[in-house]
Design a protein that fits this description.
Blueprint: E1 5-10, H1 14-24, E2 30-36, H2 39-46, E3 53-57, E4 59-60, E5 63-64, E6 77-82, H3 88-93, E7 98-101, H4 106-130, E8 133-138, E9 141-146, E10 150-156, E11 159-164, E12 169-172, H5 176-183, E13 188-192, E14 195-198, E15 204-206, E16 209-212, E17 215-218, H6 221-231
Parallel strand pairs: 1-2, 1-3, 3-6, 6-7
Antiparallel strand pairs: 4-5, 8-9, 10-11, 10-14, 11-12, 13-14, 15-16, 16-17
């Protein structure tokens, strides 16, 4: 299974969206997870998702693209797309990865994507090396968890319950969203507002249910399309 980078497009112009989708179609490891045409829709999406890459227009019907930045979790690569160079300073002040002035050439876009792929590859290697082991707080204790042994995580009120391959469970002092920020990679994917799964541990997928070691996990409607795209790669 090749690495796929989940991508959010925030753009209200249909022609610009179509052009961006066409340019992205040449990169097999890019998975467009969602397209937002408003600040509100983008914020709603980001409240339950942490994409790897965000292409961000600035002038939107209900505000500026910069308005979504406080709602971004994890550490995605953000590329600003705008026809106004005057936003460049603010963009880089907000830590964006690249600034593409519309209309951009295919060559300029390809350069941007090559830089993104290089950055994401380094990040994925870092995640694999540094986060195979995770220390989490459970009550007053700090417990070491081998992520290769994590089958899935379940939301329990404001906490997350880890289900491990040895049959044990561990309730930790992190919400499911906070846990996802720490372990998000190809192997771990949120498939329901209450569940994160280890893709390497899946035994069976039937209809809208995932089976992992005799545990049935529902696939939420919001996450179904992204899950199917990854499953079919």
């Amino acid at each position: 299974m090749s690495i796929k980078y989940s991508t959010l497009i925030v753009e209200d112009d249909e022609f610009s969206v179509a052009l961006l989708e066409r340019n992205l179609s040449f990169f097999e490891n890019i998975m467009i997870e969602h397209t937002s045409s408003t600040v509100k829709d983008a914020i709603d999406f980001l409240s339950v998702n942490s994409p790897d890459i965000i292409f961000l227009d600035i002038e939107l019907p209900d505000g500026k693209g910069f308005d979504i930045i406080p709602f971004i979790t994890g550490n995605p690569t953000v590329v600003v797309l705008t026809g106004d160079e005057g936003y460049a300073f603010t963009a880089f002040e907000n830590g964006v990865f690249d600034f593409l002035k519309k209309p951009f050439t295919p060559a300029r876009f390809r350069t941007c994507m090559e830089r993104i792929e290089h950055s994401q590859s380094k990040r994925a290697t870092s995640v694999e090396n540094d986060k195979a082991i995770l220390f989490v707080k459970s009550g007053v204790k700090h417990v070491k968890v081998n992520l290769n042994e994590l089958l899935f995580a379940e939301a329990v009120n404001d906490y997350a319950k880890l289900h491990l391959s040895n049959g044990k469970t561990l309730l930790i002092n992190l919400s499911l969203k906070e846990l996802l920020q720490k372990i998000q990679s190809l192997s771990f994917l949120q498939v329901h507002r209450s569940y994160i799964i280890n893709m390497q541990q899946i035994d069976l997928v039937e209809n809208d249910t995932i089976n992992i070691k005799s545990n049935d996990i529902p696939i939420g409607k919001t996450f179904r399309t992204a899950f199917q795209k990854i499953l079919n790669t």
